[in-house]
Specification:
Blueprint: H1 6-9, H2 20-23, H3 36-44, E1 58-60, E2 63-65, H4 73-81, H5 85-93, H6 99-105, H7 109-112, H8 125-138, E3 154-158, H9 162-173, E4 177-181, H10 190-193, H11 202-214, E5 218-220, H12 231-237, E6 240-243, E7 249-250, E8 263-265, H13 266-280, E9 294-298, H14 302-313, E10 318-322, H15 349-358, E11 363-364, E12 367-374, E13 380-392, E14 398-402, E15 408-411, E16 414-417, E17 421-423, H16 427-432, E18 436-437, E19 440-441, E20 455-457, H17 460-463, H18 468-486
Parallel strand pairs: 3-4, 3-6, 4-5, 6-20, 8-16, 9-10, 9-16, 10-11
Antiparallel strand pairs: 1-2, 7-17, 12-13, 13-14, 13-15, 18-19
Helix pairs in contact: 3-4, 3-8, 4-5, 4-8, 5-8, 6-8, 9-18, 13-14, 14-15
């Protein structure tokens, strides 16, 4: 695929980005696409590798390898190389419901599994994918696909994140009538409120939602199932129900001073910021404002990085991100074998911005917060920490040990806790009577059905916190099982 010798002739070219000191002054997407000519060259780097691991989509020791939705990557790379953009779009849409999302916010495990990545930089798969779908919208190649016939079967989907949207899209195209219930005021789930605007502009999400509406999907917003409408009412009025409620129960931190004013969960911070931006461009003041303050983010993942980038745009005085693990290696470790995604040191967008503004990477490694201290009015003023070392025990397991004498006091008026998610919020599943295992809704990946007749689940609510591509994959797969189920049922009379 691509040019037979292209991988030897051309270097990988990174997508264009606004300069850090420029982009922190706005909330627009910081990344943009390359020119058509540059991307054709990047497509030429795709090797004729016989076995394209990039689209195999499996998990190896809990790490994703390849594309879970099995994108036909070599095929559309070759078509882009040949300048056949519309044909490339057709190939892309065969497997991916929402390339405009994955092309922006997916961590691209396909690139980690690229055969070229064994010894050289991978093919620029993600950038090519984004450009294909963007050209599709720009050239009006993307138009509403309205089903010719309706089956008369009605399906309710609770939650409008990527799993809910993917299952709705598939079921609607199969001719079923689909209604999505969303408790927020805008559809999209974490795509709308969990991912900052500078990574995914919300016009991109809203464009897809409007297309789904034109295709016949109903969205009922500002409606919390179990509160505004009962679980029993949904059971009575729909042939099947799919719970795509995500894994939004945030993991909290409990220690001395953690109840101080100024300590927030990361998603509460990100959500309030995005909502205020969309509602009023921050005029309403309904957001957590870190301007002129010292900010500490606890948690070393992507959500923590998004908090760093958000605080920088609010013009915080300083920002530091605490992680409990050591700095990642610059190359794959022995246990991080190809074709799994490389777990290596990267300078993500937020850290580039902090470097540019404050002159240093904001990340602190192997650090443990011991307590938080508030002033006399209950407002956070500082954090007390100690450094740790990672030790391999005699039993073969690693543990962390505090290093005496490394205690430190950090000034902080805001702390954002970004230490992951525990699982699904359980109040709604409990109302439906589904079985819960490890704070996830129990369902087999073979059929996605719960212990309750006609009730299915997919995405993070079933699998646990994962990648957007896994959510889309689960949405696609649950749709097939639900369609098989409802096609066996008589039509419910209106």
């Amino acid at each position: 695929m691509g040019k037979a010798t292209g991988f030897m002739e051309y270097n990988r070219e990174k997508g264009k980005e606004q300069a850090p000191l420029k982009r922190i002054k706005n909330w627009n997407e910081y990344a943009s696409k390359l020119t058509d000519e540059a991307l054709q060259t990047q497509g030429a780097r795709c090797m004729d590798c016989a076995t394209p691991f990039c689209h195999m989509g499996i998990e190896i020791r809990g790490a994703t390898a390849g594309c879970p939705i099995n994108n036909l990557i070599p095929e559309w790379n070759d078509l882009v190389y040949k300048g056949k953009w519309q044909e490339a779009l057709e190939r892309l849409m065969m497997t991916n419901n929402f390339p405009e999302f994955t092309g922006r916010v997916c961590p691209a495990p396909c690139e980690g599994s690229c055969t070229l990545a064994i010894s050289d930089p991978a093919v620029s798969i993600k950038n090519i994918e984004r450009t294909i779908i963007d050209k599709g919208f720009e050239n009006s190649w993307i138009t509403p696909r309205i089903p010719n016939n309706r089956t008369g079967k009605k399906i309710a989907i609770i939650g409008s994140g990527p799993a809910g949207l993917a299952s709705a899209d598939e079921l609607n195209q199969a001719g079923h009538s689909v209604t999505i219930y969303e408790r927020a005021d805008r559809a999209g789930g974490l795509l709308m409120y969990g991912i900052p605007n500078m990574k995914l502009e919300k016009e991109v999400v809203e464009r897809r939602i409007q297309l789904l509406v034109q295709e016949g999907i109903d969205f009922i917003l500002n409606t919390e199932v179990g509160k505004d409408i009962s679980a029993e009412a949904l059971k009575e009025n729909y042939d099947a129900i799919i719970l795509c409620i995500g894994a939004q129960k945030q993991r909290e931190i409990h220690m001395e001073g953690s109840q101080s004013t100024g300590v927030y969960l990361a998603m509460d911070y990100l959500t309030s910021t995005t909502k205020s931006l969309l509602d009023s461009n921050f005029v309403d003041g309904k957001f957590i404002d870190t301007k002129g303050k010292d900010v500490i983010v606890i948690g070393g993942g992507d959500t923590g990085a998004d908090c760093v980038a958000t605080a920088i745009r609010q013009n915080c005085r300083s920002v530091v991100q605490f992680g409990k693990h050591p700095v990642l290696p610059s190359a794959r470790a022995e246990d991080n074998v190809w074709p799994t995604d490389p777990n290596i040191f990267k300078l993500e967008y937020a850290y580039e911005e902090a470097n540019a503004k404050y002159g240093k990477d904001p990340r602190e490694y192997l650090i443990q917060t011991k307590r938080m201290v508030a002033d006399k009015n209950g407002h956070l003023k500082e954090l007390h920490t100690i450094h740790m070392e990672k030790i391999l025990g005699e039993d073969g397991y690693y543990f962390f040990r505090e290093i005496p004498g490394t205690e430190k006091i950090w000034p902080a008026q805001f702390v954002f806790v970004a230490i992951g998610f525990e699982g699904a919020e359980l109040s709604l599943p409990t109302q439906f009577g589904v079985t819960i295992v490890n704070k996830k809704i129990a369902a087999s990946p073979k059929d996605y059905v719960t212990n309750v007749e006609g009730l299915f689940t997919a995405g993070d609510a079933r699998k646990g916190q994962s990648l957007i591509v896994w959510a889309i994959k689960e949405g696609q797969d649950v749709a097939k099982k639900v369609s098989e189920y409802v096609n066996k049922k008589p039509v419910i009379s209106s």
